[in-house]
Amino acid sequence: MSWNRVAVVGGGLIRFGELFDQSYEQMAHGAFAAAVSSVDKGFDPHQVEAAIVATQRGTLWGQEGIGGNTVPSAIGLAGVPCTRVENACPSGSDAFRIGAMVVASGVHDVVLVIGVEKMRDKSTDEGLLSRAASGHPIYNRAETAPVLFAPFATRHMHEFGTTREMLASVAVKNHHNGTLDPYAHFQSEITVDQVLASPPVCHPLHLLDCCPQTDGAAAVILVNAERAREFTDKPVWVAGFGVATDHPYLHEKSTFTGLPVTTLAAERAYQMAGVGPNQIDMAEVHDCFTITEILDIEDLGFIEKGKGGVASLEGETAIGGRIPVNPSGGLLSKGHPIGATGVAQITECYWQLRGEVGERQVELRHGNALQHNVGGRGSGVSVVNILTTNNP
Amino acid sequence: MSWNRVAVVGGGLIRFGELFDQSYEQMAHGAFAAAVSSVDKGFDPHQVEAAIVATQRGTLWGQEGIGGNTVPSAIGLAGVPCTRVENACPSGSDAFRIGAMVVASGVHDVVLVIGVEKMRDKSTDEGLLSRAASGHPIYNRAETAPVLFAPFATRHMHEFGTTREMLASVAVKNHHNGTLDPYAHFQSEITVDQVLASPPVCHPLHLLDCCPQTDGAAAVILVNAERAREFTDKPVWVAGFGVATDHPYLHEKSTFTGLPVTTLAAERAYQMAGVGPNQIDMAEVHDCFTITEILDIEDLGFIEKGKGGVASLEGETAIGGRIPVNPSGGLLSKGHPIGATGVAQITECYWQLRGEVGERQVELRHGNALQHNVGGRGSGVSVVNILTTNNP
Hints:
2 copies of one chain form a homodimer. Chain A is an alpha/beta fold. Chain A has a single domain (6-125, 211-388), classed as Peroxisomal Thiolase, Chain A, domain 1. In chain A, 32% of the residues lie in helices and 18% in strands. Chain A has helices at residues 24-37, 71-74, 91-104, 128-132, 145-160, 164-178, 192-197, 260-273, 290-299, 308-313, 330-333, 338-354, and strands at 6-13, 50-54, 82-86, 110-117, 200-202, 205-206, 216-224, 236-245, 282-284, 368-375, 381-388. In chain A, a hairpin with a 2-residue loop joins strand 5 and strand 6 (205-206). In chain A, helix 3 crosses helix 12 (338-354) and helix 6 crosses helix 9 (290-299). Chain A is globular, with a radius of gyration of 19 Å. The interface between A and B is large, with 62 and 61 residues.
């Protein structure tokens, strides 16, 4: 029993990287233009009835952009309703889900979902991630993202025999995939030895176990399923989605060998879509660190708990493997411009399901793709979206 | 032809003020508890299926709260999907609109909309509004909110003969209304002479022409209209809403005698609700400054353009007047905790339409109430929601 009231009919992004030469508004415009030009039967930008903008750091006024409501003017659509959605690292994926519900509500038939983030314009001292480091006013000062994930790696290694080589195999795979993705920040191969020898950040995570800081923007166009054929003969449907929250601080976590927040979000998405993990052809998941992808593929149900490291080392998640994960290069290679990340992952799923990505194309068996982010002090919130080519 | 697929069945807030003794999470919990206990037939908090949280400054991590996704854990609902909506000063009103569309989409039947903002914990130097002052990287440095609205007052006075006494009459009315609202930050009468004699901020706006900085939280419970009678025999329906954006910077404005962004948002809301301004019994509008309320009542269609100052001076917008505006005390007296403001205005409309507010009760003739915010570098975005007691 699928949902399928909403169709994706276009998606595009700008090449991720250090985009000092582009403003927030220029990046948004670039992604919007790419999405518009991707629509098979053409798309007049003024068909957009409402927009949802995902930006994590937008309220830091003066760092370009005061959030979502500057975007319509910047992309030539002043007047159009526009709402900013922020949900930590899953901001983009949650914006997509909210956009789908706006369409399903019947209020708007054509909704633009756009993610945009500038991560590099400010120094580390001034930037977003230094604010993260100030932590909870009482419990957690000076925590950074590697600090939030390293304990999970430590415990996973202790419980299941996961090794640093297994962690490194995730980075090697995703950097390889990045060489096949013209939109990726990094586009060169790395080796396990390079990961192992890279500078330590927070044991057992070294520099190449970590995603970079990246600027980027991505956009998708959602329409009422009944009108999808106006725009394309190859629509992709929103099959389902799920969100879960958890207690946000590390001292409140119930386990360090998995992220229950992802398991719960996935259960909700699978139930809504009427499919299970064995019916997913490919997934774009949240690999902010190598250990995160290993947790993800277990918590999403692709790999048995504890076997994620071995599965990665043995190639099960490679493009030709049993369940291809992050064919786009993932956060580790493509980059993680927070608000844009989820929307770009959705775009990759859209392209994959339409068979449009050339060398990094996965085999399509069931016609379903899954997109996932987790974040919010590490694992305070998780979002899963499932797309499908199976007709309603 | 009304929309009316969604019902409001509960609403509550905490008293607005300088709440140094309450954390962000405590404020959210207080508002949620008030909304829960307001439901006529009782409400189990675990009936909440999803939450939308409005917070403007949430991403300033370390200033308590990293945005919406910490709220479910804090109010005893860890696990529940939660999305933060940010849309400058209309954050709360847009969160309400998004919450209504989530219910209308059929995905969730019971949705909590909660607005919460801490404005006072940081000094002016460190706080949100100092960031606003950094402005556009090129065009607009050092602009603050009074600077964004004073030119409209100047031009309105020039074009229409509006006087400082007329501006002051708005503040006098709203502070009077605040004496009738136990949730208002300020609860004492002021006089026209006091407004005129208060320190100048940005001509012609003086201190008592400006709203204060206030901490606060508010919450409403939305349900599928078909299930409203499970919760109350006196539901209030969401009749319609409208959002518009505009070019965000002052040098791009097409007029300084009105805010076209509000006119457009209102047209959309009236059309969706199937009512006009003459069928509105009361309105909660965005009076961040006295001039703003005068612009609002003209742009929303209550008063002829140019006559807003005279209408205010003559009492047309008082509680017993032709169109009562801001019976809660408005931003000027009740306060403006950004994310909470719109949700608190909705709560006031809900209470007014149910006839529950005692001395500040307006006369109900048509059964419709209107709520409005404008913001985003002054007038980059406007949101209008219309509530009704008229059955679908």
